[in-house]
Structure formats: C-alpha cells, structure tokens
From TrEMBL:
Reaction(s) catalysed by this chain's protein: ATP + protein L-histidine = ADP + protein N-phospho-L-histidine
Protein name: histidine kinase
Domain of life of the native organism: Bacteria
Database matches in SMART domains: HATPase_c
Keyword Transmembrane recorded: yes
Length: 400
C-alpha cells in the first residue's frame, strides 16, 4: 500500500514500541470504558450477574491489555502473564470488558515474530487457558460460543504465521537479489579484467613487433645513409609504411575502449596474413622462410588470431636476439584435429636462450596465455643444434 506524503505510518514502522504503546492504551481505554459504562450490570450475552466494578477489577482488566505495549519483545511470556488476570476476572465475577483482546493480540504476535515451535506452544497454552477459564467462569455457555472463541484464536494464530512466512519470503527474495547483484558485479569485474588483459596482449604484440622492425630498419638506414642513399631511402620508406600499419592496428585495438558508442573495429589479422608478416621480416633483415603443410581450413577466430600473434612474437624475438646473420623458419601444419605452429631460428640461441625464455618482457607471457586459453601445448627454449624455437599445438574441436 502506498503512503501519502507526510503520513505517520513510516515513522510508526520505524518506532514499533510507540505504535504498540498506542495500541495498548487504546485497548485498555476501550476495555475500562466498557466496564465503567456497564456499571456492573448484566450484559445480554452473560448468563449470570456480574460483580460491581472496583479498583481491583479495573487493575485486573488493565493487566490483560497493557502488556500489548511490549508484544514484540516478550510476546510468549506476556501471553502467559495475561492468563492469570483473565482467570481472576472470571473467577471473581467481574465484567471483563475487552480484556480478551489482549491475549489474542499477543498470540498473533508470537506467531508473527517467533518460530514455529514457540508459536505452537502459544496456541496450545491459549486454548488450554481458555478451557480452564471456561470451567471456573460464572456459568455454562452455549457450545457455539466456545466454537467461536476457538476459531477466533486459530485465525489469529494463522494470520500471524502467514505474516511471518511472507516476511521470511520477502527477506529471502531480497537476499537472493543481493546475491545475484554481487554475482553480476563480480562477473562484470572479471570480464573487464579479461578484456584489459586481452587489450594489453594485443597492444604489446603490435607495438613490440612493429617497433622492433622499425628499429632494425632505422639502424640499417643510418649505416647506409652515406654509402648507398638509395638503400637508405628504401629503408626509411619501409619504416614509414610500418609506422602507419602500427598506428592503424593500434587504433583498431584501442577502439574497444571507447564508451560513447560501439567500436568500429577492422578485421583482426590471422594465419592468412603470414606471408605478409614473413615479407616484413625479410625487409627488416631477418631471412625468413614459410612452409604450410596440410589442407588449409577455416580456423576459429580466436585460435586464428592467437596463432598469428605467436608467430609474430616469435619472429620479433628472433629479429631482436638472433643476430644479423640468423635465419628463421616458420612451419604451419594443418591436421584434422590440431593446428601445429613451429617457429625456429639458427641464431644465438645457446647464449641468449635463457634470457629469451625468462625475460622481463610480456611477449612470451602473452604467448603462454594465448595458448593456454585455447587448451594448447607450448614449448619455448633453445633449439637442438643451436638457435631458438617456439612450438605450439592448438586442438581443433568439432572440425567439419
């Protein structure tokens, strides 16, 4: 139910003791007023005369309804406590007014705020107390009156249990919503971390490869600038083209970081671009050969990119560490359920191998992450007979 602005209901819900005290005062005032107005005479439903009211009767009547003020703190104890004044009123022949409403409110409170065992004990105690009270009362009552009293008590208990179950259900829904929200936030953080890692790997591969090639070509151009300006000019042209290519790839990768709309990404490189990569390495001074074995088939995009970046990183390391007279070989083998990639060189593998395996750069770490991501097997280390090699096998599942 909606509450109007300025309504006291939210404040009363925040201060339950005040609301219960108001309820207790209202019940007590109504009960005492009814007793006083009756003047000790007989009511229509009573079978015998009632005792004229006196201070003792008023105190006993008030003792049946005032405990309602603390119904949320000790409902079961107060329910048992109101049985004694209720018995005393009936045993001494006083008009009990509305004193019977106090135990009903406390019975409802036990069912609404306590567990099932205590609430069952409360309904049993209330019915037993009513049975004893009927035996010590002023006279016999029609059986229909007893049925009405029992039904009313059971309704109060059932309503209290329904409220408790509904409150527990709503609390469970809120906890479930909180858990789902926390799980969603955790998934979002994990996805963001994975995306940052992926972008870092892509940026490293692009920057490391192109900058390494540009550095080698710039060194060659510097050496040939006076001896052969034409060769130096060709090297500078290659550096310019390589720089433009690097900027284009970096713009494509960084495009995923835009927050003002979908990124306009170009196609990612793949194994079909290996001839171009090998040609770039040859222009940079690394004599590279490429062999492709087996029937070429369409590769999953992730494996296609991972295998290309592996070859790119391995050739870049050969260009940087193998030496000016080194040669490199790239062998790609397409099998039915596996893609095998082998990159090797005959450079200074024996001297620089440990450094290249356990270097401080992120290139080889990125290679390991890419291969592990797709369940592949990777070997990096010195090559038999000198040099360095990188071997990787990517499993291909559900190939047509």
């Amino acid at each position: 139910m909606r509450t109007t602005p300025g309504s006291p209901r939210p404040w009363l819900r925040a201060h339950p003791l005040v609301a219960d005290s108001i309820l207790a005062v209202v019940l007590t005032t109504a009960s005492l007023s009814l007793v006083v107005l009756a003047g000790g005479g007989s009511a229509e439903w009573q079978t015998g005369a009632t005792r004229p009211y006196d201070p003792l009767g008023l105190v006993l009547a008030a003792a049946c309804t005032l405990p309602v003020a603390l119904r949320r703190r000790w409902p079961f104890v107060l329910l048992l406590a109101t049985i004694v004044p209720q018995w005393t009123l009936d045993a001494m022949g006083y008009d009990d007014g509305l004193s019977g409403l106090g135990p009903l409110v406390l019975l409802y409170s036990v069912a609404a705020h306590r567990g099932l065992a205590l609430s069952l004990a409360a309904i049993v105690a209330d019915l037993l107390a009513y049975g004893v009270d009927a035996g010590i009362g002023r006279g016999p009552m029609p059986w229909t009156d007893h049925v009405v009293v029992v039904v009313v008590a059971l309704l109060c208990w059932v309503c209290g249990r329904a409220v408790r179950l509904r409150r527990a259900y709503l609390a469970e829904l809120m906890q479930r919503a909180d858990r789902l929200e926390r799980a969603r936030e955790a998934d979002t953080r994990a996805a963001r971390a994975e995306e940052r890692s992926r972008i870092a790997r892509e940026l490293h591969d692009v920057v490391a490869h192109h900058v390494s090639v540009m550095t080698v070509q710039a060194a060659a151009a510097r050496k040939m600038l006076d001896a052969d300006p034409e060769v130096a000019r060709d090297a500078l042209t290659a550096i310019e083209e390589m720089g433009r290519t690097a900027m284009a790839e970096m713009r494509n990768i960084v495009g995923v970081l835009r927050t003002d709309g979908p990124a306009e990404l170009g196609p990612q490189p793949g194994m079909q671009d290996l001839p171009t990569l090998v040609e770039q390495m040859r222009e940079a001074g690394l004599r590279t050969q490429l062999w492709v074995e087996g029937e070429r088939r369409g590769l999953p995009p992730g494996i296609d990119l991972a295998a290309y970046r592996l070859v790119q990183e391995a050739l870049t390391n050969s260009l940087r560490h193998a030496g000016p007279a080194a040669r490199a070989w790239v062998t790609v083998r397409h099998e039915q359920n596996e893609l095998s990639v082998h990159v090797e060189d005959d450079g200074r593998g024996g001297a620089d191998g440990p450094a290249r395996v356990a270097g401080k750069g992120h290139g080889l770490v990125g290679i390991r992450e890419r291969v592990a991501l797709y369940g592949g097997v990777l070997r990096i280390g010195p090559r038999t007979g000198g040099g360095f090699e990188v071997r990787a096998r990517f499993p291909l599942k559900d190939r047509p």
